[in-house]
Design a protein that fits this description.
The structure holds two protein chains of two kinds. Chain A is α/β, with parallel strands linked by helices. Helices cover 49% and strands 14% of the residues of chain A. Chain A has helices at residues 3-34, 44-52, 60-91, 102-105, 120-137, 172-175, 199-210, 224-247, 262-265, 272-284, 304-308, and strands at 110-113, 140-141, 144-145, 149-155, 180-184, 192-193, 214-218, 254-259, 290-296, 312-315. In chain A, the strands form two sheets. Chain A has an eight-stranded parallel sheet, with helices on both faces. Chain A has a two-stranded antiparallel ribbon with strand order 2-3. In chain A, helix 1 packs antiparallel against helix 2 (44-52), helix 7 (199-210) crosses helix 8 (224-247) and helix 8 (224-247) crosses helix 10. Chain A is rod-shaped. By secondary structure, chain B is of the alpha+beta class. Helix content of chain B is 47%, strand content 12%. The chains are: A alpha/beta, B alpha+beta.
């Protein structure tokens, strides 16, 4: 073999290597790099790689070169949109602190709106817990000395009065606030009996609230009509007492009332008397130091008078992270 | 969607088989639209609800290759693209476009 033959064979070998590289290895490798311009979950990453197998081997390098344009315009655009969405999602991080001045929260009406599972009950529990701490602290609110705040929860699901999985198997009164009186329509251990026809029970509840205590009314054992009747009667007793205090020119006690499933509880198409109670609570409640906080997934079913007099509305939603 | 030359070409190619499955590379060849333009059009059509997409059933694939993504026209897509071609047929900008000739003549 002379030098010319050797050179010729070397050139052939390098030509072969280049051909293998250009038509065999390089297109797939370059394409796999290009598709990285797409966001991680974008199906076009897999789509373009799968399409490569359909392209005849001889035209693959040119087809892959064409995908530079695809990846830059389609892929980078998708990545930019994806990053923008993620930034928007981060803006509503669940860790974002939310401060509500006490003077604007007590003795006023608040709505918690959101579908099931968005944290209405959890938010309500936090509000009750914070209000209880504020009630014990005293201090000053709007230049006035702090007052005890009585709180009553109309617990239609029994999730405040009883241990439940949502709170890791603990009951509200053991996890959040200790000084709680629980009432039930049925006789149960640890609960006081709630009797609508017993003035003493009503007076006891009102007295507890005026003393800044927490009352949980477990309505989970009775049907919706009894829930509504019970809620209406207790609300009336609280409002009547507040009016008496007001007429006697005593300093109004602060009382916060909490209604879960308000679209069911605060509706009384069949009872004008009960409807009037909530209309009065909505309109006159703040004057007597009574605020209501209601949670609902159906705002349209809340009586107009309550909606018109709602000072604050928190809309809750689930924050999906992709 | 803005009525562009490329969109009309893609519409012609897809409406040649309005109920069939369309694949990116073949659609690019049939329409004569390069993939850098075709794929953003497909994305927009998906977002508009004119197309649905899916992946080949791996059990039906012969040989060693990954499953491909296909596109199918929805009822809305057929209506919209049909309307688009009808408009294009009356538009001087698209006069002489091969697929249009005869389609709305």
């Amino acid at each position: 073999m002379n030098v010319a033959d050797l050179l010729s064979s070397l050139i052939s070998l390098s030509t072969l290597l280049v051909a293998v590289l250009v038509y065999g290895f390089a297109p797939g490798f370059v394409l796999r790099l290009l598709v990285l311009l797409y966001p991680r979950q974008d199906p076009r990453r897999a789509e373009l790689i799968a399409e490569l197998y359909e392209v005849p081997r001889l035209t693959r390098p040119f087809w892959v070169a064409e995908q530079i344009e695809t990846a830059v315009f389609d892929g980078l655009g998708a990545r930019f949109r994806s990053a923008r969405q993620r930034r928007r999602s981060d803006d509503v991080s669940p860790d974002l602190p939310l401060d509500v001045p006490a003077a604007e929260a007590l003795g006023q009406h608040t709505a918690l709106v959101g579908v099931t599972g968005t944290g209405k009950s959890t938010t309500m529990k936090k509000i009750i817990d914070t209000t209880a701490a504020l009630s014990q602290l005293g201090g000053t609110i709007n230049g006035e000395p702090g007052r005890p705040v009585g709180q009553i929860v109309f617990d239609v699901h029994g999730e405040y009065a009883n241990p439940n999985l949502q709170d890791g198997g603990a009951a509200f009164h053991t996890q959040y606030c200790q000084d709680v009186a629980r009432y039930s329509m049925l006789a149960k251990p640890g609960f006081k009996i709630m009797r609508l026809d017993c003035p003493r029970t009503m007076a006891e509840i009102v007295a507890r609230l005026r003393a800044g205590k927490i009352v949980i009314l477990d309505l989970s054992d009775v049907d919706i009509d009894i829930q509504r009747t019970c809620t209406g009667h207790v609300s009336k007793a609280i409002l009547d007492d507040a009016m008496v205090q007001f007429v006697q020119q005593r300093r109004a006690k602060l009382i916060q009332m909490y209604f879960e499933e308000a679209h069911n509880l605060l509706r009384h198409e069949d009872s004008q008397d009960l409807t009037e109670i909530y209309d009065r609570l909505a309109g006159e409640g703040p004057k007597f130091g009574i605020g209501i906080c209601y949670a609902t997934q159906d705002v349209e079913c809340i009586p107009d008078r309550i909606l018109q007099n709602t000072h604050k509305c928190f809309t809750l939603h689930r924050n999906y992270s992709s | 969607m803005r009525k562009t030359y490329a969109l009309v070409q893609v519409a012609i190619a897809m409406l040649d088989d309005p109920t069939g499955q369309h694949w990116g590379y073949e659609l690019s060849k049939a329409s004569g639209v390069r993939s850098g333009v075709l794929y953003p059009i497909l994305t927009r059509m998906l977002n508009e609800g004119w197309l649905t997409d899916g992946w080949e059933d791996p059990r039906t694939i012969t040989g060693k290759r990954p499953p491909r993504r296909y596109y199918e026209l929805t009822d809305e897509g057929r209506l919209k693209l049909g309307g688009l071609l009808a408009e294009a047929g009356r538009d001087a900008r698209f006069a002489g476009l091969p697929g249009l000739i005869g389609r709305f003549a």
